[in-house]
């Protein structure tokens, strides 16, 4: 009996002891670089905000597969060599579980041989040069359509409004030349006439000479293929030439609020492409917009939405896989058909996106309006 009371006491003492909390699951460590300084800083900052908002939202719901998301982000200073070094560091030193792509086609092209060598599936939310999908990579997946299809919707508007005689101007980087070549090809398919095709060195800021040549060509429409600076600089050069084409399109720049903040009324009637706008409610995009405004006190551009969407797509792939096996995730991403806040995701055998298309926007009275496609437009296009 004495032994019974001793055992009972020990059992009571054991039960009464505070239990140790269960060990928290290791976080899913995802690495990336962004050009937070340098020529891509505006767009990269939007991408940073977008991916961090995705991290916050996922972690507030308990993470993925019961594991929180930890982001490891480095500034690649908008430099391809710096990005190459940093992606090696992420893989070999930081030993991250997964990766997201950087901003810009040039930097993405520089790091793809590294991610491919080590078998890291890469969702690319900041690059779309056609050349990325022409080198046989097996682990690279775009989330929006390639550069060569950026202006298809705009060209359809030209046909519908009997506008012809197009001048195409481009910088000499892979992304911009991809847009330019695609614009020329699709214009000819639409039966439109390209009467001027200009290219200049990336980094050239004064475009007055090119603007004068385009003006002298007799073009009614100008398509500027480049990034933010080129969109602004060409608009200013056209103004100094004393001429405004009946339609002016520029890639990248006009999708950012900074374009209008910098140019004011001179930004009016500029067309561009966008992969997301707050007017369109797709797969929770309205909630993303409200949360972004609340968190950062600025309006998101499509660059932020693209980064958030990459997180959604990766999260869906991890959930479907049930683990972080990179080979299995590669197979899932190559076959998956899913939705994100920017629309549908489905890649072909090269990793190129096939189901997502850009909206065409236009600045009207200080607002970005969707003018194409018809079923999503918030205002009719204006031609001057």
Brief descriptors of the model:
alpha/beta; Rossmann fold; single chain; 12 helices; 2 domains; 41% helix; five-stranded parallel beta sheet
Structure description:
The chain has 384 residues and is α/β, with parallel strands linked by helices. It has two domains: 28-144 and 281-345, Response regulator (Rossmann fold); 149-274 and 359-376, Rossmann fold (3-Layer(aba) Sandwich). It has helices at residues 2-16, 41-60, 80-93, 105-117, 152-160, 174-189, 208-216, 228-240, 257-263, 285-296, 302-321, 326-335, and strands at residues 28-34, 69-75, 98-100, 122-124, 140-142, 166-171, 194-200, 221-225, 247-250, 270-274, 338-340, 343-345, 359-364, 367-372. The strands form three sheets. The protein has a seven-stranded mixed sheet, sandwiched between helices. Strands 2-1-3-4-5 form a five-stranded parallel sheet, sandwiched between helices. Helix 8 links the parallel strand 8 and strand 9. Helix 11 crosses helix 12. It starts with a helix and ends in a 12-residue tail after the last strand.
